[in-house]
């Protein structure tokens, strides 16, 4: 097992987009270049095949390939967290075992969507996965997408089991989040699942963020997490203010539609998504170009700042 598996997760983790060619296939050169750039820019971990990576539209072979490429390009430099969630526990187990075999250091498991399991069923689901695969698990709570909330009491019960090492909390319920932060075991991490709440959550004691925005401005988000880690609130507020327009623009339509538009403007990939997602509405393009220029990601001529 990788040495990263036993270390506490902290800092900025990028929830990677999956680039596609104009024909709709995975763009492997663009993806490998994205991974290398992210590591060079200072992010602290990478997450492959999450919702930002359009994992629900990837075939099993494509899912495997994306994680495989991430592991190869990272080459042990930082943790690689593989999305393996499903609303079919048997499928989640099979995917988890495959992700372990190809070298992921951690698994990301979202609460099952659509089925709407009760809290005792969530406990059974996550424990069954942990019983079947010995990689450390990051829980993912995003009720806006799944229609089920991982309640604080349920999360804290799982946190007592060392096989569950962190939660990506995207409920935006600060009462719930701060309860988890206060009452968790020392070894259990809390990561923001909302870019705009990163500073606030870290001020309460969270360890970092799993970020959409860092696809586009990785250095800024990594530096925000590092400033919070050092307790430099003045610098953190400056970085948060610089990030705010990009963060807002990244969610002007469903994620990852705006992020892919931005990365296309930066010449890092084609602006191609898989149905049922479509490229960003043309009306939003001036705004995303403007925020990239303001953040220093594009020069005034519209070229990527490298």
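^ Assign residues to that structure.
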């Amino acid at each position: 097992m990788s040495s990263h598996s036993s270390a506490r997760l902290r800092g900025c983790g990028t929830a990677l987009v999956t680039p596609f060619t104009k024909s709709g296939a995975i763009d492997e050169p663009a993806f490998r270049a994205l991974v290398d750039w992210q590591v060079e820019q200072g992010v602290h971990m990478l997450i492959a095949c999450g919702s930002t990576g359009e994992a629900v539209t990837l075939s099993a072979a494509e899912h495997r390939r994306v994680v495989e490429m991430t592991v190869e390009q990272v080459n042990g430099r930082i943790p690689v967290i593989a999305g393996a969630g499903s609303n079919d526990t048997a499928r989640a187990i099979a995917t988890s075992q495959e992700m372990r075999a190809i070298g992921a250091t951690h698994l990301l498991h979202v609460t099952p969507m659509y089925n709407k399991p009760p809290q005792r069923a969530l406990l059974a689901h996550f424990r069954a996965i942990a019983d079947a695969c010995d990689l450390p698990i990051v829980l993912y709570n995003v009720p806006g997408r799944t229609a089920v909330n991982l309640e604080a009491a349920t999360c804290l019960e799982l946190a007592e089991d060392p096989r569950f090492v962190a939660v990506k909390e995207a409920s935006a319920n600060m009462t719930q989040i701060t309860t988890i932060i206060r009452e968790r075991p020392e070894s259990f991490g809390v990561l923001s699942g909302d870019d705009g709440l990163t500073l606030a959550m870290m001020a309460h004691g969270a360890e970092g963020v799993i970020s959409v925005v860092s696809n586009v401005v990785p250095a800024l988000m990594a530096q925000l997490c590092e400033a919070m880690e050092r307790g430099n609130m003045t610098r953190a507020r400056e970085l948060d203010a610089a990030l705010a327009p990009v963060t807002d623009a990244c969610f002007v339509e469903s994620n990852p539609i705006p992020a892919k538009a931005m990365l296309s403007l930066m010449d890092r990939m084609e602006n191609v998504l898989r149905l049922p997602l479509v490229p960003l509405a043309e009306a939003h393009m001036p705004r995303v170009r403007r925020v990239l220029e303001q953040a220093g990601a594009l020069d005034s001529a519209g070229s990527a700042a490298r």
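The radius of gyration is 18 Å.
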